[in-house]
Specification:
45% helix; Reverse transcriptase domain-containing protein; two-stranded antiparallel ribbon; 6 helices; alpha+beta; globular; single chain
């Protein structure tokens, strides 16, 4: 088995981007994760879109196979972002990928941030709050045994860092959503 470093892997996997471009798809790569996406207009036909996505994914899978890489079909996800009034229109969408049928997910996790279909970010806010309160409870258990500076350092590294991560995505959100995160700081 040969292991490539990050730079070599990027050079090696560059054709994945070219395959996406050939199918008129947008893509993002981060380490060994690749996201293929496109903008769907309200009048677009899902059958045409799914055929394009399936063909692109099949070409990527074929390229990977011929280059001794394996595409993990079990980790492949599909999400269609839309306004609340458009969620039902795309509720039965799915893709056939290899031996799997990939159904539309209600929420996906990308680089540690949860995105739901309407970009309401409810699951992200809940997960962040829960994680922060868990860390605060753990710090409170050991607080009698550590200095004030050590407690501050722990709070900054294990609580504040969680609040800060991805918070720019919440810009412009309603105050009631943001207040759930602000309660952590009280």
């Amino acid at each position: 088995m040969v292991f490539l470093g990050p730079k070599l892997y990027c050079f090696f996997s560059k054709p994945i981007g070219e395959i996406c471009k050939r199918h008129n798809m947008w893509y993002h790569c981060y380490a060994n994760d690749t996201q293929v996406y496109l903008v769907i207009k309200p009048l677009d036909n899902w059958n045409n879109i799914s055929a394009r996505l399936e063909t692109c994914m099949a070409d990527i899978s074929s390229w990977m196979c011929s280059n001794k890489l394996k595409l993990n079909e079990d980790k492949t996800e599909l999400i269609i972002f839309s306004p609340k009034h458009g969620v039902k229109k795309f509720s039965d969408c799915h893709l056939t990928f290899g031996k799997n049928i990939v159904s539309d997910s209600a929420c996906v996790k990308n680089l540690g941030v949860y995105f739901d279909k309407t970009l309401a970010m409810d699951q992200q806010i809940s997960a962040t709050s829960k994680s922060c309160f868990y860390q605060i409870r753990n710090i409170s258990r050991i607080r009698p045994f550590i200095t004030e500076n050590a407690a501050k350092t722990l709070v900054c590294s294990s609580v504040t860092s969680r609040l800060d991560y991805g918070n720019a995505l919440l810009y412009g959100f309603p105050l009631n959503a943001i207040q759930r995160l602000q309660r952590v700081q009280l």
